[in-house]
Amino acid sequence: MATENAPTTIEELEAALKDDYKVKLAGIDVDNVLRGKIMQKEKFLSCVKSSSRSFGFCSVVFGWDIHDQTYTKELSISNLSNGYRDIEARIDISTLRRIPYEGNIPLFLVTFIDPETGKGLHACPRALLQKVIGQLSDELSVKPYSGAEFEFFQFKETPASVHDKGFRNLQTLTPGMHGYSMLRTQVSGPYFHDVYDTCRDFGIPLEGWHTETGPGVYEAALAYTDSLRMADNAILFKMTCKALGYKYDIMPTFMAKPHNGLPGCSGHIHVSLQDSNGRNIFALEEGKTRDDAKWADLKYVSKECEWFLAGVLAGLPDIMPCLVPTINGYKRLVENFWAPVNVSWGYESRLASVRLISPPLASPKATRLEIRVPGADMNVHYAFAAIFALGLHGIKNKMELTIQPTSQVKPENHATAFDRLPRDLNEATQRFKAPNSLARQTLGDAFVDHFAGTREHEWMLYSQTVSDWELARYFELV
Length: 478
What we know:
Blueprint: H1 10-16, E1 22-28, E2 34-40, H2 41-49, E3 54-58, E4 86-99, E5 105-113, H3 125-140, E6 142-155, H4 159-164, H5 189-201, E7 206-211, E8 217-226, H6 227-247, E9 251-253, E10 269-275, H7 303-315, H8 320-323, E11 345-347, E12 354-357, E13 368-371, H9 380-396, H10 414-417, H11 425-433, H12 438-443, H13 445-463, H14 468-474
Helix pairs in contact: 3-6, 3-9, 5-6, 7-9, 11-13
């Protein structure tokens, strides 16, 4: 879905930019970091008018990690062997929006293209999601829709202060546990309201915005829309919170587990499919139920929804790096912290990895699946691509749902009734890259090999680092 009033022709684009002299362009790397630049308007228009609608962009953004350190292992896109060549950045004029906190400068998102094939670069988050959306359209004549929720901590810090403190003993925006507080938002009311209002002006409507349990924790629910727009909105939401935070000497972090002993920060995603008539194919008609439902949890949803769910559950352990891409993210997925750790599902169950939302507590139109595994540190484009690719696999193969719902198992028996998800990034990456993984079958070898290489790089750096815990544990006594 294009942004509201976005141009569809060169003439409309030129009219929209008639009073501008510069534009901002941004793409997304594998670590969910926006990489971009400002471009002179005349240069931008010449790129848009070219046959490829693109410009050259240094491929090193796919050859280095989140801190701009080149990968120790040569990966396929950008390396010493190819001289860190240029790739193409194809401008998506339908993404035009203006950045409210940056003088209303026009912003366009790009999709990275392989110059040799002219197709979307296999590791580009937007390209991967666009590929899966195309498959859903071609094979099922449906369009994916999604929502995203983020919990995240705010700190009364600046980039300089956190570095000076070595990221230790940071001051949270507010003390104590105050979920849904009507008072704690007054501590920094201008920042709290500025985020909400700016997101509205930026084309990122928030359905909900409140404090969550934890010192300085907020939660945002982004308004449901088509999946590519939602993924774009999600990364721009993070950018907006960080940029506005600078204005107030506040630093939000989307780390999944910034504190020991406190709940982590989730990044739950909601998914459904609509046909060409706008009908939610996961839902039954109003008042209808299924007589063939294996469990009561399924009686208000379609067979397609059940097949989709079966595909997701079958491949959930194989796609974990797409949902939880960081070392830190797995420290959120531990028992007794209300975070999902097993391959499980259930009707309205917040204990399960996949929560089914349907009548009688929701309307048929709102029928959907909530994937509760990701943390706030997820790359939303990868997460959506992986979930919808698995769901497509389940529907195409009419996969039988063999895992019983959580309603059939006592909570104390969940640990033995359901398979455990990978416990760390290394375990997750090895399963992700395995020859028979559903990640390979649904997302392709090129993407899996590249992204697995980046995660192995991350694990190597982590495993070679001497931590404060090790010093406190062993320095004196061993």
